[in-house]
Write a structure and sequence with these properties.
This protein is of the alpha+beta class. The protein has helices spanning about 1-10, 15-20, 40-60, 60-75, 80-105, 115-130, 135-140, 375-380, and strands at about 160-175, 210-215, 220-225, 270, 275-280, 285, 295-300, 310-320, 325-335, 350-365, 385-390, 395, 400, 410. Among the domains are: about 150-365, no CATH class; about 375-410, no CATH class. Strands 1, 4, 5, 6, 9 and 10 form a six-stranded antiparallel beta sheet that branches.
């Protein structure tokens, strides 16, 4: 197995290098894998986002944030001092920008241990008081284990076979219909904007963040999207690159219909740039790669520099992989009828979606399980005995055996 993987890495050396170099947006998904490190392009995008984020944070007033934190605490049944939570979230916002400044510098993430420790202390204080993480609170969603049918992985869990894979996830062909109100600072009730829009945010801003989770049987990889206007749900706007210009289209007093790449656009929008989102190292799970499925969950929310984010919804895909290498696409969409700040016009819902691609290199090791005689299996169960499909044997219950540890075992 080690030799086969070595050959596979050698054959795909150039594509793998290119994949890592294109860790950002604008490239088609390519076969290969890369370790999760920040590329020069991603580092530049993060650095470019910092002045915008600092300006947005400076505009937020503590008294406005207090109101939002109180509402979010009530929604999530958090019993803690709203003033304390607000201050911790403010410290976290400033420390996160400081950490991203360090990570986007010439020293990279390896030189940012002091910043990471300071942020971790604030995160721990918030969890101690609120009973959940600051990320969960700001995003409006508690972390939960996915349903069993969402875990993907090999369909055949043969004890005699293992599946080793490296996976990369890309987002492309994103779209959002015109019924999202989202951030409309001081524009509540303009045109068809509802009265409950989040009026404390920056007008027309549609920067998306969120969480990306990849599941493959027992393997799970998570990534929280940075506020870089790229990773989670890149938009088509060019005046403010990466944003969604229809974020305030419910304000029909000010919206325009001539420039879909500009702000205040009143119609549906789409964006076709390919965005690399996450890559895994090589990992191994039980079973055969043939017939296996990868599941990807993308929770999208509109970012607030302090608190609290507007949830949009979760995109789920489940796509097949096989022995060898290739790309598997899946389309997903979500309709949100009560979160965020939708427009006050029928159907009062915002719908968005994307095509998510999984590029894979996979290799099965071991021998497939034997093909058992179904009649023998049926006869075994009819006798009240137990059937072992990995060895095609029928075992009488109650027979004591010695285990490898020389312990007497009686099933």
């Amino acid at each position: 197995m080690a030799q086969r993987l070595k050959v596979c890495r050698s054959l795909l050396f150039l594509p793998v290098v290119f994949l890592m170099a294109s860790n950002g947006f604008g490239e088609e998904p390519r076969r290969g894998q890369g370790t999760e490190r920040m590329s020069a392009q991603a580092r530049a995008a993060l650095a470019a986002s910092i002045p915008r984020r600092e300006a947005e944070l400076a505009k937020r007033q503590r008294e406005d944030v207090l109101v939002e934190v109180e509402a979010r605490a009530r929604e999530m049944s958090v019993r803690a001092s709203v003033e304390e939570l607000t201050d911790l979230l403010g410290q976290r916002a400033h420390l996160q920008i400081g950490l991203d400044k360090c990570r986007s510098g010439s020293g990279g993430a390896a030189s940012c241990h002091a910043e990471e420790r300071a942020l971790a202390r604030v995160e721990a204080s918030f969890r101690d008081r609120a009973g959940l993480s600051a990320r969960e609170f700001q995003g409006g969603r508690r972390d939960t284990n996915p349903p069993a049918d969402k875990l993907g992985g090999p369909q055949s869990l043969s004890k005699s076979q293992t599946c080793t894979c490296a996976l990369s996830v890309y987002s492309g062909y994103r779209w959002m219909n015109r019924y999202w109100g989202l951030e409309c600072n001081n524009h509540a009730s303009h045109g068809v904007c509802s009265n409950d829009v989040d009026s404390a945010h920056t007008a027309g801003t549609g920067g998306m963040t969120g969480d990306i989770d990849l599941y493959f049987g027992s393997y799970h990889q998570h990534r929280s999207c940075p506020d870089d206007q790229t990773t989670c749900f890149h938009g088509p706007e060019t005046e403010h690159p990466g944003e969604w210009g229809n974020a305030c289209n419910c304000d029909t007093w000010h919206s325009q219909y001539d420039n879909p790449q500009g702000t205040w656009y009143g119609g549906d929008l789409s964006d076709s740039a390919w965005v690399h989102q996450v890559s895994t190292p090589y990992f191994t799970v039980a079973g055969s790669c043939d017939g296996a499925y990868v599941t990807v969950s993308e929770y999208i929310k509109e970012n607030d520099p302090w608190c609290c984010d507007d949830p949009m919804g979760t995109l789920w895909i489940s796509v097949p992989v096989a022995n060898g290498s290739g790309n598997s696409p899946g389309e997903a969409s979500f309709q949100n009828c009560n979160g965020g700040s939708q427009s006050g016009v029928y159907p009062y819902c915002g719908t968005f979606g994307a095509t998510i691609w999984v590029a894979y290199i996979c290799q099965t090791s071991g021998s497939p399980p034997p093909t058992c005689d179904p009649q023998e299996e049926e006869n075994c169960w009819n006798m009240g005995w137990t059937w072992d499909s990995s060895t095609c044997t029928c075992n009488r219950p109650g027979v004591c055996e010695y285990s490898a540890a020389k312990m007497l075992y009686c099933p």
